[in-house]
Amino acid sequence: MTKCKRWEYLISLSIDGELNNSDQKRLSRHLSGCADCRRIQESMQNMADVLGTWPAIADAEMVGRIKSDILKKAGKIRKRPSAVRTFMPAYVAASILVLFVAVNLWLGPFWLRPAPIRAGLLQNDRIELVFNKPMDKETLQLPEGKDANAANVANADMKTLFAGSACGTCKKEASAPLKQKQQSREYTPYSPSHALENQPGHIPYTLTWRGNTLLVLFARRLPADARFTFIIPATVKDRWGNDLGRTYLVVVDHGQVSIKKTSAR
Amino acid sequence: MSLTPDEFESVYTAYAHSLINFMARLVGRDEAYDLSQEVFLRFYSAKIPDRKVKPWLYQVAYRICIDHWRKKKTVRINTFDQIPESGSAAVDPEAAYLDKEFTAHFARVFNGMPPEYRALLLLRSENRASYREIAAITGLSLESVRSRLYRARMALHRALITGKQGENIDQM
User: Which residues of A touch B25 (CB under 8 A)?
Assistant: First the structure.
């Protein structure tokens, strides 16, 4: 920038009152000795005066007509409200409902207490036990030290299934052959500590999950008159940490499976 | 609609005349008739806090005008035809004649400038906007507002002296 261009820039700022006192004084001193810059200052001031005072293009009549047109157009827009704006609350509610249903179909209702809701005996070699929601498989654990090839017991309360004996008082029946007990046989569960896996009539089983369904897979077909009970303890949890709250008995009797719930804990 | 009729009336009364005039200086009276409606219709359905109404209106008006000018490129603005008789005619007819002649010449030269520079000069001198307000309306920095105003004035000064337009303001 040449010397006077620097001053020209300051002149432009001074026209707008944007110079501080010291720059204004320096500019004034320069102007007193520079005719070219004085001409430029006069020209810039004239421009500002013309622009500040020349008549308006828009008159009151034009402004009024524009307003009428705006109000007419605004009225037409108001008569045709946006369907989205009108129905937005309904759209939002419907979207939330759809999302809620989708989540629950996918995850299962998280707020409900878990429970077994249905059981069935399939092909006499498996029991299907359906829960109302995804369960925490960790709460149906294998107890430590058990042989994986023997019966897999879900936890201390999931008793080993066997034929022909009862815990405690039935020791005298422990060795009775199966066929002699067929009519009134009750397959009474034993605790794992009794180590009954090798007892006659014992039917090993494994547990596996398919979604919300627990499958008890027996190593061989159950007898048609098999009767036994296994326990789902109250401490079994769903995926969200809610426990069953009560103990359930799954009763198998002559091919029929039923679920019985006991009183809370 | 977000505004009540009274709210719209209050804003329109306060700002319409100067805003429409500003737009007319940039794009011409006929174009400003339609484009200013677009500004106020947008305002009608927007929720603008009171203290931001004026800068918002001018911001939208500025952008609409610049976009329109870029699309059209040749916009005739016959502002000098609408200059009324000067009040000094009764005192000094010659001065009044020269005054009108100068204003017409000024208007011709002014209207030949790019609209961005015209907008800066109008906002400062006609609308009395501060540099900060001009920066907000145009989206420029404060320093850019200062330097562009200087360049616009110098271009206008040279064009008024020489009668030639088309000087590349950006390379001054």
Answer: 57
User: pTM for the complete prediction?
Assistant: 0.53
Helix (H) or strand (E) holding A247: strand A246-253
B154 to chain A: which residues are within 8 Å by CB? 8, 12, 40
Q: How confident is the model at residue B84 (pLDDT cuts 50, 70, 90)?
A: very low
Q: Among partner residues A62, A66, A74, which is closest to B44 by beta-carbon distance?
A: A74
| Out of A8, A54, A67, closest to residue B154 by CB | A8
Q: How far is A77 from chain B (nearest CA, A)?
A: 8
Does A55 sit within 8 Å of B149, measured CB to CB?
A: no
Q: Is the complex ipTM higher than 0.85?
A: no
**CB under 8 A, 24+ apart: contacts of B77-86:** B77/B24, B77/B25, B77/B27, B77/B28, B77/B29, B77/B111, B78/B28, B78/B29, B79/A54, B79/A57, B79/B24, B79/B25, B79/B107, B79/B111, B80/B104, B80/B107, B80/B108, B82/A55, B82/A57, B82/B29, B83/A54, B83/A55, B83/B107, B84/A55
